[in-house]
Amino acid sequence: MSESEPPPYQIQTQSQDHDSLTLTLPLLSHRQRSVNSTSQVAIVGANACPIESLDYEIAENDFFKQDWRTRGKIQIFQYIFMKWLLCFLIGGFVSLVGFFNNIAVETIAGVKFAFTSNMMSDRRHGMALLVFSVSNLLLTLFAAILTAFISPAAAGSGIPEVKAYLNGVDAPDIFSPRTLIVKIVGSISAVSSSLVVGKAGPMVHIGSSIASLFGQGGSRKYGLTWKWLRFFKNDRDRRDLVTCGSAAGIAAAFRAPVGGVLFALEEMASWWRSALLWRSFFTTAVVAIILRALIDVCFSDKCGLFGKGGLIMFDAYSANVSYHLADVPPVLVLGVIGGILGSLYNFLLIRILRVYNFIYEKGIIYQICIACTISILTSFLLFGLPWLASCQPCPSDAPEACPTVGGSGNYKRFQCPPGHYNDLASLIFNTNDDAIRNLFTKDAMSEFQLTTMLIFFVTCFSLGILSYGIVAPAGLFVPVIVTGASYGRFVGMLLGSHTNLSHSLYAVLGAASFLGGSMRMTVSLCVIILELTNNLLLLPLIMIVLLISKTVADAFNGNIYDLIMAVKGFPYLETHAEPYMRQMTVADVVSGPLQLCHGIEKVGNIVHILKTTRHHGFPVIDASPDSESSVLYGLILRAHLIALLKKKAFLSTPMRLGVDDAFRHFSADDFAKRGLGNVDKIEDIELTDEEMEMFLDLHPFTNASPYTVVESMSLAKALVLFREVGLRHLLVIPKITSRAPVVGILTRHDFMPEHILGGSGGGLIQLLHMGLTLETETLAGED
Q1: Exposure pattern of 200-238 as b/e (b: 16+ CB <10 Å)?
Q2: Which end of the chain is more exposed for a tag (fewer CB within 10 A), N or C?
Q3: Sheet holding 708-710, edge to edge
């Protein structure tokens, strides 16, 4: 039977989980989307990859129930104990990686700046430029080649990919050991190359990768497996560990354990519960304790060759803060400016990503050329701009050596004569962490000039946008902080004696406003900044700035990570339904064909279904004893069907198989979820003609209690159910029992606005938009 001629058990009604169908990339294609083709391929890191959905729902079949009934108290205790043990291991490993990254960046950058500064002191300016630019180029080239050829999934910050995973989107290689290694090494190289990129975003990805590897018991591909870790055989448990890993990443990047938990809650996780709160808090506490034990190395000025390191950035501002009611209006203005600039930053960044991706389609060589071009541009700007600043005499009461040569500090000499310093070089010829520390410092009220702050702000704003899209690990947190701190200090200097607040406090508030305007987080950012600055007195001002900047920026566009997910093509399910979804039923969006399996099915039919479709869930029907019509028995997953075929426990006659008989042929490990991207394929299974005529009893392995909705349910209500429960398939059943037992299956792609607006319901949606404007505005307010 050809693929165009459906077998008798095929019903032309609904689309199932099409995980690798028509290529539709928002960044790659400007063509009109066709029905059922939204977001089947997404840009993961730097490359376009087919994506799938995750099975967060537990398949409660007879085999699963019997497996749990056979577990004793010791096994249950071991299961719970392993969760806490893995949280401890995740916290320990992430903290060690964070400290190692900090040491490596400070050392590599320190060698580069030491050589350059010494040559500048010797008046060998041309050689200094050559050493500075070539070292930056080599570091960037190394990161780009490593990422492009070994693991393209490691490009970017990784936060959009992790956030999409926690929402239920499975992308290949995002948590593989190869990606983890490239992310660590590439992040160190990229940050050390003076690019305006950060290491906080990559740390979130690194923490999530470590958690994922522990959750799946290691990597079979690379021979790194631990049998004693293979307790978490489903996506639900691994999702919780990845959430803890993302919280640990922020905690390790900023030494902000509480901020890490709140970041995972506010920004990353789509599902949250009290048990997960406890475990993520425990994970970040482990990070904080281990970093506290290691931070003494930094306090003794041995945290790398160059400076004290970003891990003690929180000590930068610890002065007593006193402010009055008259100081509030400038703070409000600062929040408005942060919202406008943050939304502009997001708008320009997305446009640059689209341009880069258009160029990246031409091949890897173009990806590397873009990275090298940005590196050369950055080097020439960072070396040339300080020449525009005038030399300042060293203050007599300077809290540190002035001028500074060959190390981090507030008073870089650069091209100035002895006893003078270049204030712009003090910001540029430092790592980003040390630049932030210099902007936050309370002892440098008159250190910087207005023109210096303006030049530094424009430079960071522009280079931050240009640098993020290169094929290398690159975060957004630190560039946004340093950009916001520069314009915040600029505003403070403009106000001068008209305010009681110090310039450094305005730098902190500027960083908060720009973070709120770009990333749109409030609670987590507030706590992270408080833990960074180690000053609780800043709380009221930071809260006001974050609320205002987020409110203003929301009027223009969304937060930066959601925008990046959208242009990358991830089918992310939002927390709220679009107003027009209330005017539609689930029957309006289902389409065919739908493949069905019988409770006892012929092997040849199963092979035909698996080979001719890419669906990942199939309804199982049985004949009704009271009538000639069929009844719905449940839902079976593609992975389980392949596992049954691979085991070849076939029946010569169509007979019902008991649960005890199933346990003799199969074990729970046969149906355990494999690592990300590692799935068995039907093409790899070889069957004889005789075996194709045999039978399989699907009843013990079918989820007999799948979530179902009636076809008249509103699409908005179905979306809430689908997202809150974390489903991959939602069965649609008929309202009239005399019809077929299943109308169709809803997957996450059916809820995407691109699918609904671009499909057969597009005309209906346009009418709804024209005729129900007032109603949709009211509903949007209710949401």
Answers
A1: bbbbbbbbbbbbbbbbbbbbeeeeeeeeebebbbbbbbb
A2: N
A3: 708-710, 730-733, 744-746
Q: How far apart are CA 439 and CA 683, in angstroms?
A: 60
User: In this structure, what DSSP letter does residue 501 have?
Assistant: S
* 3-state secondary structure at position 224: strand
Which residue has tokens 């490359």?
Answer: 47
Listed residue (174, 168, 163) closest to 267, CA to CA? 163
Closest by alpha carbon to 327, among 119, 487, 194, 505? 505
Q: 138: exposed, middle or buried (C-beta count within 10 Å: 0-12, 13-18, 19+)? A: middle
Q: Is residue 7 over pLDDT 60?
A: no
In percent, the amount of the chain with pLDDT more than 70 equals: 82
Q: Is the dihedral of CA 537, 541, 547, 549 positive or negative?
A: negative
Tell me the two tokens of residue 62.
């007879």
pLDDT of residue 594: 80
How far apart, in whole angstroms, are the C-alpha atoms of residue 312 and residue 98? 13
| Nearest C-alpha neighbor of 521 from the set 561, 484, 568, 482 | 561
Kind and range of the H or E run holding 21: none
Dist CA 571 CA 43 (whole Å):
11
Rounded distance, CA 494 to CA 499, Å? 10
What is the pLDDT confidence band of residue 627, given thresholds at 50, 70 and 90?
A: low
CA dist 574 and 270 (Å) reads: 9
The 10 Å Cβ neighbour count of residue 715 is 25
* End-to-end CA gap in the chain: 49
Spacing of C-alpha 666 from chain mean position: 36
Single-letter amino acid, residue 511: A
What's the gap between Cα 412 and its chain centre? 37
**Per mean pLDDT, which range of 138-147, 269-278, 300-309, 393-402 is the poorest?**
300-309
Lowest-pLDDT range of 287-291, 311-315, 739-743: 311-315
Judged by DSSP in three states, 41 sits in strand
- The secondary structure element, H or E, covering residue 586 is none
Backbone angles phi, psi at 691, to 5 degrees: -65, -30
DSSP state, 326? G
Q: How far apart are CA 342 and CA 196, in angstroms?
A: 16
Other beta carbons within 10 angstroms of residue 66's beta carbon come to 15
Rounded Cα gap, residues 722 and 581, in angstroms: 14
**Length of the chain in terms of residues written:** 783
Radius of gyration of the chain (CA): 29
State the Cα–Cα distance between residues 348 and 328, nearest whole angstrom: 30
Residue 496 reports pLDDT greater than 80: no
Which DSSP string corresponds to 411-443? -B-TTPPTTEEEHHHHHHSS-HHHHHHHHH-TT
- Contact between 289 and 282 under an 8 Å Cβ cutoff? The reply is no
Which token pair is 42?
């997404």
Identity of the residue numbered 81: F
Q: Residues 11-37, buried b or exposed e (16+ Cβ, 10 A)?
A: bebbbbbbbebeebbbbbeeeebebbb
pTM: 0.87
Q: Which two tokens stand for residue 102?
A: 């900090």
Tell which residue, 131, 253, 243, 135, has the closest CA to residue 187.
Answer: 253
320 and 534 Cβ atoms separated by less than 8 Å: no
Cα gap 592→13, rounded to integer Å: 4
Q: Which residues, 6+ apart, have CB-to-CB distance to 75 below 8 Å? A: none
User: What are the Cα distances from residue 200, in Å, to 98, 173, 430, 460, 703?
Assistant: 9, 20, 18, 17, 41
Q: Residue 710: name the closest of 746, 734, 745 by CA.
A: 734
Kind of pairing, strands 218-219 and 224-225? antiparallel
CA distance 699 to 379: 65
Q: Give the three-class secondary structure for 597.
A: strand
How far is it, in rounded angstroms, from Cα 503 to Cα 441? 9
Treating both helix axes as pointing N-terminal to C-terminal, what angle do 539-554 and 523-533 enclose, rounded to 10 degrees? 140
